[in-house]
Design a protein that fits this description.
The protein contains three helices and no strands. It is mainly alpha-helical and about 70 residues long. The protein is elongated and about 50 Å long.
Amino acid sequence: MLKGVPLVIIGVLLVLLGLAGAVGLLDKSRFKLYEDHQNREPAAGNHRAYQRGGGVVMMAGGAAFIYAGLTN
């Protein structure tokens, strides 16, 4: 099992990626690609909500990794 510093590093990376998703920095990436190719995807508003919700969940997971790394 991982302990200590590797868990903290993984946790920080997850929090940063989750923050980018939650703030909306990644909104146009996947949705724009599918919109250009006319594939069936959720509406733009729903897509943003899913992206931001996923970002929040990823941040929570990253925080759990950081906590586990610091308490071992």
